[in-house]
C-alpha cells in the first residue's frame, strides 16, 4: 500500500514528533546527570553561569510551580504516564505538523520528569533565571519542552481557527 504525498508528509511529521520526544528526553536526562554528578550541584547548591542565570539545585517534590506540595508521588507518575499515552494517540492520529511537534516535546518532557520521580523521588530542577530582585521559578529542560509544546499547540489552534474562518 502506497501513501500519497499528503499522507507521506504527515507520517514524516509523526516521526519528527517521536524524534523530538526522544531528543528532549535525552537532553533532559543528560543535563540532569551533568548537574548532579559532574558539577556536583547538590553540594554546591547554586552556581552563577551568566549575570541572569544560575544553576540552583532544587529537588521538586511537587507538581508544576510547586503545586500540591509533593503529596501523592505515585499518583503524579500514573497521571503523567496516562497523559503520555493520550499524547501518543494524538500524535499518531495528528493531521497537523505543529501538533505532532508539540506532542513530541510534551511527551519527552513528561517522561523525563517521571524518570526523575522514579529514580530520586523528586524532579531535578536547576535552571534559575533572575534579573535584579526579580526571580523566576527554578525549572529544567523537560519543563521547558512541556511549556514550549503547549505554547506551540496553542499557536496551532489559533492558526487553524483563523484558517477555518478565512477559508
UniProtKB/TrEMBL annotation:
<keyword id="KW-0378">Hydrolase</keyword>
<keyword id="KW-1003">Cell membrane</keyword>
<keyword id="KW-0645">Protease</keyword>
<dbReference type="InterPro" id="IPR001872">
    <property type="entry name" value="Peptidase_A8"/>
</dbReference>
<feature type="active site">
    <location>
        <position position="125"/>
    </location>
</feature>
<dbReference type="GO" id="GO:0004190">
    <property type="term" value="F:aspartic-type endopeptidase activity"/>
</dbReference>
<keyword id="KW-0812">Transmembrane</keyword>
<dbReference type="Pfam" id="PF01252">
    <property type="entry name" value="Peptidase_A8"/>
</dbReference>
<feature type="transmembrane region" description="Helical">
    <location>
        <begin position="135"/>
        <end position="155"/>
    </location>
</feature>
<feature type="transmembrane region" description="Helical">
    <location>
        <begin position="12"/>
        <end position="28"/>
    </location>
</feature>
<feature type="transmembrane region" description="Helical">
    <location>
        <begin position="74"/>
        <end position="91"/>
    </location>
</feature>
<feature type="transmembrane region" description="Helical">
    <location>
        <begin position="98"/>
        <end position="115"/>
    </location>
</feature>
<keyword id="KW-0472">Membrane</keyword>
<feature type="transmembrane region" description="Helical">
    <location>
        <begin position="49"/>
        <end position="68"/>
    </location>
</feature>
<protein>
    <recommendedName>
        <fullName>Lipoprotein signal peptidase</fullName>
        <ecNumber>3.4.23.36</ecNumber>
    </recommendedName>
</protein>
<comment type="function">
    <text>This protein specifically catalyzes the removal of signal peptides from prolipoproteins.</text>
</comment>
<keyword id="KW-1133">Transmembrane helix</keyword>
<keyword id="KW-0064">Aspartyl protease</keyword>
<comment type="pathway">
    <text>Protein modification; lipoprotein biosynthesis (signal peptide cleavage).</text>
</comment>
<comment type="similarity">
    <text>Belongs to the peptidase A8 family.</text>
</comment>
<feature type="active site">
    <location>
        <position position="143"/>
    </location>
</feature>
Amino acid at each position: 500500500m502506497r501513501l500519497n504525498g499528503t499522507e507521506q508528509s504527515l507520517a514524516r511529521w509523526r516521526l519528527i514528533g517521536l524524534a523530538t520526544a526522544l531528543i528532549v528526553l535525552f537532553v533532559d536526562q543528560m543535563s540532569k546527570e551533568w548537574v548532579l554528578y559532574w558539577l556536583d550541584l547538590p553540594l554546591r547548591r547554586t552556581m552563577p553561569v551568566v549575570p541572569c542565570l544560575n544553576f540552583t539545585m532544587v529537588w521538586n517534590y511537587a507538581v508544576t510551580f510547586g503545586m500540591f506540595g509533593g503529596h501523592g508521588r505515585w499518583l503524579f507518575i500514573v497521571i503523567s504516564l496516562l497523559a503520555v499515552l493520550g499524547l501518543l494517540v494524538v500524535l499518531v492520529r495528528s493531521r497537523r505538523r505543529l501538533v505532532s511537534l508539540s506532542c513530541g516535546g510534551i511527551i519527552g518532557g513528561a517522561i523525563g520528569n517521571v524518570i526523575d520521580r522514579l529514580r530520586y523521588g523528586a524532579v531535578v530542577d536547576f535552571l534559575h533565571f533572575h534579573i535584579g530582585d526579580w526571580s523566576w521559578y527554578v525549572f529544567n529542560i523537560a519543563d521547558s519542552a512541556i511549556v514550549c509544546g503547549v505554547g506551540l499547540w496553542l499557536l496551532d489552534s489559533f492558526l487553524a481557527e483563523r484558517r477555518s474562518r478565512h477559508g
